[in-house]
């Protein structure tokens, strides 16, 4: 997962960390101390009013206390502070000689301020609860589309980083998965054209097709055909519902890790659906896989030839790095694209351990965010796999 930038310009994972940090500032040893600032303000106003002259009374400022409590405390905490403010106002004001008392009008002001603060706090708390519920829904959706992968799943070491450009949805049109099956392990990474829930639905449809076909089908080109069919079916279904998805497509990389044989122990198969070719990252350097000439998924009607299945040598210890255009199209303030391959080559020259999948995805994530100044114009997926 540059100059100073606003909170809304920061990537989603940074904004969530900032929110968590703000919550920690109001807790001590796991207990909330959100009530302390408004209580200290209440005491300060009462003490200052007690020590001022009768010509400069500030006790009516106590109406600020429940207002501040409404912003940081719970409903009951705000109500208690509103009552304390009203009581403090009455005690302090009546302790002054009659000619210096602010009287009933300010008492009503403090009372109404307390009532409005409690109502505002109730609205705020309800909104926060709804937001948390929506975050839970978004997290469930994310885990359904981008399911967690167990360590060593499919006899592959892997690492993955996903950064959504939509801070609310937390999931977009990027997708990836590893599926072990009867004929080896298959890997898929792709990027659905467009954003929003429609892109998420298309990604979910492709992943469902992939998980079934990759497990059962003996040939990788059959898995590729099934993915194309699945995309076309989803497009037709969405179009029939009037969603205007007739031109939706998805780029992707499908990789097969066949069960090793004495004749080809280190060979993989690759089908490229119009996606950026993966990089092979090894302790001694970086190279690109052949680009392939397949069209994106969902555009098979434009050609009569399916994308070719390429056989590529992948030595033990070499890591495949697959990224979406959130990485390849990341730009700095001057509009320069992120030099991924050159940056990796420099890092490997300094530390060959960078080729480890977990270290690799973190390095690429940090480099992408640093190069773009934290501005994610598109969903960003970084996925690395290596034979165990």
Output the keywords.
alpha+beta; elongated; 18% strand; 44% helix; five-stranded antiparallel beta sheet
Low-confidence stretches: 1-23
Shape: elongated
Instruction: Describe the largest sheet.
Output: 5 strands, antiparallel
Strand composition percent: 15-25%
Our Rg estimate from Cα atoms comes to 30 Å
Structural class: alpha+beta
Number of strands: 12
Task: Give the terminus-to-terminus CA distance.
Answer: 24 Å
Helices, by number, come to 10
DSSP helix fraction = 40-55%
Strand order of the largest sheet: 3-12-11-8-9
> Secondary-structure element order, as H and E?
HEEHHHHEEEHHEEEEEEHHHE
- Average pLDDT value? 84
Short overview:
This protein has 388 residues and is an alpha+beta fold.
Question: What can you see in these coordinates?
Answer:
By secondary structure, the chain is an alpha+beta fold. It is 44% helix and 18% strand. It contains 10 helices and 12 strands.
Topology:
Layout: H1 12-25, E1 27-28, E2 31-32, H2 36-50, H3 64-72, H4 75-94, H5 104-145, E3 156-163, E4 174-181, E5 184-192, H6 197-216, H7 220-240, E6 250-257, E7 267-273, E8 279-282, E9 285-288, E10 310-313, E11 319-323, H8 325-328, H9 340-350, H10 357-372, E12 380-387
Antiparallel strand pairs: 1-2, 3-12, 4-5, 5-6, 6-7, 7-10, 8-9, 8-11, 11-12
């Amino acid at each position: 997962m540059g100059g100073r930038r606003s909170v809304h310009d920061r990537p989603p994972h940074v904004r969530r960390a900032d929110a968590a940090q703000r919550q920690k500032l109001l807790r001590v040893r796991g207990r909330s101390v959100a009530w302390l600032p408004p209580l200290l303000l209440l005491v300060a106003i009462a003490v200052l009013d007690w020590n001022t002259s009768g010509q400069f009374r500030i006790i009516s400022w106590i109406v600020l206390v429940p207002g501040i409590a409404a912003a940081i405390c719970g409903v009951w905490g705000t109500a208690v502070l509103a009552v304390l403010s009203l009581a403090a106002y009455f005690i302090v004001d009546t302790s002054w000689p009659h000619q210096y008392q602010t009287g009933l009008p300010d008492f009503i002001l403090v009372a109404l301020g307390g009532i409005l603060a409690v109502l505002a706090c109730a609205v705020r708390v309800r909104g926060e609860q709804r937001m948390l519920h929506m975050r839970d829904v978004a997290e469930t959706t994310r885990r359904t589309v981008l399911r967690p992968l167990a360590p060593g799943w499919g006899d592959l070491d892997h690492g993955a980083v996903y950064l959504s450009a939509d801070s609310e949805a937390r999931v977009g049109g990027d997708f990836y998965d590893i599926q072990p099956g009867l004929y080896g392990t298959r890997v898929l990474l792709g990027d659905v054209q467009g954003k929003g829930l429609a892109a998420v639905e298309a990604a979910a449809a492709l992943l469902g097709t992939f998980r079934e076909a990759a497990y059962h089908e003996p040939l990788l080109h059959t898995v590729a055909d099934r993915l194309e069919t699945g995309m076309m079916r989803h497009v037709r279904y969405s179009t029939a519902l009037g969603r205007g998805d007739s031109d939706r497509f998805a780029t992707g990389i499908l990789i097969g890790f066949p069960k090793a044989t004495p004749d080809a122990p280190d060979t993989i198969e690759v089908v490229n659906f119009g996606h950026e070719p993966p990089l092979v990252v090894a302790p001694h350097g970086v190279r690109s896989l052949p680009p392939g000439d397949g069209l994106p998924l969902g555009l098979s009607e434009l050609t009569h030839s399916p994308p070719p299945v390429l056989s590529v040598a992948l030595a033990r210890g070499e890591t495949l790095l697959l990224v979406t255009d959130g990485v390849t199209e990341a730009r700095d303030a001057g509009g320069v694209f992120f030099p991924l391959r050159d940056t990796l080559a420099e890092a490997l020259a300094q530390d060959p351990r960078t080729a480890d999948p977990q270290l690799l995805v973190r390095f690429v994530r940090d480099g992408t965010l640093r190069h773009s100044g934290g501005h994610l114009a598109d969903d960003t997926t970084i996925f690395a796999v290596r034979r165990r």
